[in-house]
Specification:
By secondary structure, the chain is α/β, with parallel strands linked by helices. The chain folds into two domains: 92 residues, 60s Ribosomal Protein L30, Chain: A, CATH 3.30.1330.30; 154 residues, Alpha/beta knot (3-Layer(aba) Sandwich), CATH 3.40.1280. The chain is built from nine helices and twelve strands. Strand 7, helix 6 and strand 8 form a beta-alpha-beta unit. Helix 5 runs parallel beside helix 6. It is elongated. It starts with a strand and ends with a helix. InterPro entries: Alpha/beta_knot_MTases, MRM3-like_sub_bind, Ribosomal_eL30-like_sf, rRNA_Methyltransferase, SpoU_MeTrfase, tRNA_m1G_MTases_N. Belongs to the class IV-like SAM-binding methyltransferase superfamily. RNA methyltransferase TrmH family. Pfam families: MRM3-like_sub_bind, SpoU_methylase.
Length: 256
């Protein structure tokens, strides 16, 4: 077995602890993903970190010792860098998506100031299921590379183009590329999402959990759309609304 990191003063161990914070994920352009399922994904990783007591299990099942980029941590140190209550004992480091808005082609989902990691993760999974590949988040939205969101995506985070940009640059890009901009918003001229007529390129905009889509993006949209609510409740959770909306849009796109 390889050498085991046993000291909390180890430089790499200190980096692992820092990666729980967005500042250090951004500085190093890497993030953590935890769980055995990532060994079954065909995704290039930068590093494998395994708990000492779990090494034999993973090596026997997956032959992880063949990887040059393998690090083993003493159990107590691994527990300090794990973000899961019942960890499986293995963590991966991946490079962040460094695409820009100009790399976007085709339909796009825009999340405006979404803050909840669980909502973001659920939306990413839903996007993949409904076959949408492009996600833009307004700057200031939740960091999708935080451990809770990565876990909620069930590896979906690796299957999307993910970009952060300002609302102004998003609108400029969409206008230049002749996108149909559809904001989900209760407005005096809102229409039911069932009545939307799509174009070749469409942008679907969803807003903050409490405040909804910003006035700026609403004013710069081509269509304001709503999902009808039939019961006595004011609104839907944003991840639920996004799922309902995107599946309806996928039905429409398949019939074009």
């Amino acid at each position: 077995m390889r050498d085991v990191i046993a000291s909390p003063d180890n430089k790499f161990y200190k980096l692992l602890k820092k990666l729980d914070k967005k500042k250090y994920r951004d500085e190093n352009s890497i993030f953590k993903a935890e769980g055995e399922k990532f060994l079954n994904e065909n995704i290039n990783f930068n590093k494998i970190i395994v708990k000492e007591s779990k090494f034999e299990y993973f090596d026997e099942k997956y032959k992880i010792s063949k990887h040059d980029n393998l690090t083993i941590l003493k159990d107590n140190l691994f527990d300090e860098v794990s973000t899961q209550e019942n960890s499986q004992g293995i963590i991966f480091l991946y490079s962040k998506n460094l695409n820009t808005i100009e790399d976007i082609q085709g339909d796009v989902v825009i999340l405006d100031d979404i803050q909840d990691p669980g909502n973001a993760g659920t939306i990413i999974r839903t996007m993949i299921a409904a076959n949408f590949q492009n996600l833009i988040l307004t700057k200031g939205s939740v960091d999708v590379y935080n451990p809770k969101t990565v876990r909620a995506t069930m590896s979906g985070i690796f299957k999307l183009n993910i970009i952060y940009e300002t609302p102004e640059k998003i609108v400029e890009f969409l206008n230049n590329k002749n996108y149909l901009k559809i904001a989900t918003a209760l407005h005096e001229d809102s229409i039911s999402y069932e009545k939307i007529e799509l174009r070749e390129n469409n942008a679907f905009i969803f807003g903050h959990e409490g405040g909804g889509v910003s006035e700026y993006l609403i004013e710069n949209s081509d269509i304001k759309a709503i999902i009808p609510i039939y019961g006595n409740i004011e609104s839907l959770n944003v991840s639920v609304a996004t799922g309902i909306f995107l599946y309806k849009m996928r039905e429409k796109l398949e019939s074009l």
